[in-house]
Known about the structure:
The complex is a heterodimer. Chain A is an alpha/beta fold. Chain A has helices at about 1-5, 10-15, 20-30, 40-55, 55-65, 75, 85-95, 105-115, 130-140, 185-190, 210-220, 225-235, 245-250, 265-270, 300-310, 315-320, 320-325, 340, 355-375; strands at about 65-75, 95-105, 125-130, 140-145, 165-175, 200, 235-240, 255-260, 275-280, 285-295, 330, 350. In chain A, strands 1, 2, 3, 4, 5, 6, 7, 8, 9, 10, 11 and 12 form a twelve-stranded mixed beta sheet that branches. The longest helix of chain A is centred in the last third of the chain and has 20 residues, at about 355-375. Chain B has a domain at about 55-220 and about 280-310: MetI-like (MetI-like fold), CATH 1.10.3720.10. Chain B has helices spanning about 5-35, 45-80, 85-95, 95-100, 100-115, 120-125, 135-160, 165-175, 180-190, 195-205, 210-215, 225-235, 240-260, 285-315, 315-320, 325-360, 365-380, 385-400, 410-445, 450-480, 495-505, 510-530, 535. The two termini of chain B are about 20 Å apart.
Amino acid sequence: MQKAERLANPKNLIRFIPAEGLDGFKAGGYFPFCFEEIPVRRRLFLNSLVVASLFLPGLAAAQDKQELTVYTYESFVSEWGPGPKVKEAFEKVCGCTLNFVGVADGVALLNRLKLEGAGSKADVVVGLDTNLVAEAKQTGLFDVSGIDASAAKVPGGYRNDVFVPYDYGHFAVIYDTQTVKNPPTSLKDLVEGDPSQKIAIQDPRTSTPGLGLLLWVKSVYGDKAPEAWEKLRKRILTVTPGWSESYGLFTKGEVPMVLSYTTSPAYHMVSEKTDRYQAAAFSEGHYIQIEVSGLLKNAPHKELAKQFLAFTLTSGFQDAIPENNWMMPVAATSNPLPEAFSKLVVPQKTFLMDPEEVAKNRKAWIDEWLAAMSMN
Amino acid sequence: MMLRRDYRRSIIFGTVAFAAVFLFMALAVAALLSFDAGASAAGIMDAYTLRILRFTLYQATLSTLLSIVLGLPVALALCRRREFPGRIWIVRLMAVPMGLPVIVGAFGIITIWGRQGVLNTALVFAGADEPFSIYGLSGILIAHVFFNLPLSVRLMLAGLERIPGEYWRMAASLGMGPVSIFRFIEWPAVARLVPGIAGLVFMLCASSFTLVLLLGGGPAATTLEVAIYQALRFDFDPQRAIALSVLQIALTAILLGLLAFLPSPEAEIPSLGRSLRRFDGKGIGARLWDGAAIVFAILLIGLPLVAIAVSGLSADLPRLLSAPIFLRAAATSLAIAALSAALVVFCCMAIIGARQAVGSRRQAGQPLRFLSAMLGAGSSLVLLVPPVVLGSGWFLLLRVFGNVSFYAPVLVALINMLMALPLAMRVLEPAFTSHFLRTGRLSASLGLQGLTRLWFADLPVLWRPLAMAFSFAMALSLGDLGAVALFGSENFVTLPWLVYSNMGSYRTNDAAGYAFLLGIVCLLLAAGGVSRQSQSARASI
């Protein structure tokens, strides 16, 4: 099996064909769903080209610049995300081509790696978060980063020899100042406050912020978490499958509070020039979400991948984080952060559970949450 | 009656089409099952599963009942009032909810029915102090009726419009009252379709996911689909995901089986194809009743659509329209939708042809009868195989052949095709059956078969249901995000993807704009699916 894989390694095929791109596949009839009729003579010619290039992979590769493949989540690569800026900055220094592949979100990212296993063509993964780290490590697909990550400064401190943090944000309750005059000042305040003032949260079974809130409540309340959820339940308007749905409800004005990040108001202040949406500072402290990148063990371009990981901690990468990913950078940016960021809530205390502990207890805690939230 | 060569060919085509569909699913499931995820496939029948199973069936049953019971008067009224102002646009509007991504529809519904919605504002203005809350079962039901009532209305309306024109003349000359007309003409025509429509709506509601979570108000409202999604995505436990899918399919198969036992009246008799003209319902009471039913449907479906349009119009539409990414997304979406709609229509024609061939032979043996039943049931149940299972399975199979994003568009089109297959069958099978009953013997006696029969005898009459099925399938595929997310790459952008990804990056305004544009595309498609001609006269045979 292994030998066969080496012989028919699809990566070899891909490396030399992109010169003509997908069209090359189509014209040659190698695109498996091609219905076009191709004259036999032309097909023979194309066949011989492909066969010839099979024997000259070194030559074909030499003509091309090295290509680094980075897997990430789709909002990172969208035209308004940090992806385009990062690509430009890195290509300037590496003399290579940086290709992003964006999947739905961090969870989908990990699943895609699991599905592809050791045969993945990814060099680097950008966009796992701290709650996925334990599971990601368990796959055995990642290698120690081997870079000096001391430039990365994260509240509460975060060190991992495999995963390198590149940005972070604290979970926070965002409220609409037009309807909420006395925002909660602590988690306790939120739990025990006026049940007619509603909040939208996310489902910990399907969303990472949802899981974040679950861990936040667990960090503050410990064994009393189920009782806290029972009380909070009366304030919860609805539990959405993902962040987008609840944040959409919030900006539509349907619900005055939503679980999001301390950095969310920065978007509204910078892009929409409004102070209307603010984060509530909680006296117990806030739970943190740290986004990390990692190097794959079977990375086709390992040296380049390491270079990219080191690059994530320089200003070329960090500059793109605040106003494109709307998270806090972990290292120095070349210019001071926009003014809006200085108005954001800075948590007095940061909660972060050990990823191993989260991985071990997640199922039990979700069951506990389900039981508390489903009572009539 | 069918000529022998036609007979054999029909059965072969149908079997091949069905086998291809089945193989497409089976390969995906097999690939996933053989994938060692290292996770333990814990027992699936625990208290949690039982609870969500009960809720899934409960809400799906209620949603189905409401969609059919509320849809029937609307369909009857739309069939009777052929001169109702803007009737054709009302009928076309019914295809729009189908093509909207659920999240867009849900936000439209919330704008009307929500806590801060139009209805509550009006109620508070009128003096009510406690706002009405839709979060819970009521919200789920409202949303399911919004998405499925148009479907049931359109399918029932198509059935009613197939009633031969002679019936109405006869009814008028006999002086039949509304009750007798309903009992002897309308109900028999609709009743034959109800099991199929109910089954379809039930499956759509049972596998509902985002709507149930968003409007259900909490995890007490959870469907099996949520558990499948959770198992495959968050826990990455393919075995559990497939076990749950099998459970879902098995239960629904039992329910569909029970529905099939509902008494269905004999198939209609051939007609001369006189133009459809109604002589009944001239009384003021009947007018008011029909008017109320149509207005009810317009409000129920139209108001949330208006809300979507209003929030979409506040976006910077010229900028969105001229953005290269929009043009690329629209082209990709339309190409995928057209491909999957064409495939679904061909596949349905093949399957229906085989079922007719079997039905046309009195002496068809047990195996053939079984094949025909399999084709019928199988083509419905494909809807219940979660797209995320199909997508992941095919991802595993294709990764051997290199970059999976190359295949993504075709794969997405195929998965969308499966999702649209049951719907297209409901549109096409009754129309084909009645057409075959009317013309089958004549065609056979003239020696018409194969393409000649298709061209001269079938297409002139059947192009209308074919266009309807095509536009429905396209709309369904346009609004689907489903499998796209799995294959994400920067080159593969569809319209729903644009809506979701803008929404996921705080850009709610742009998302609303794209949602509105998507709705417009669906409406244009619907305009292609229902031609103006269909309201005045039926093509004569």
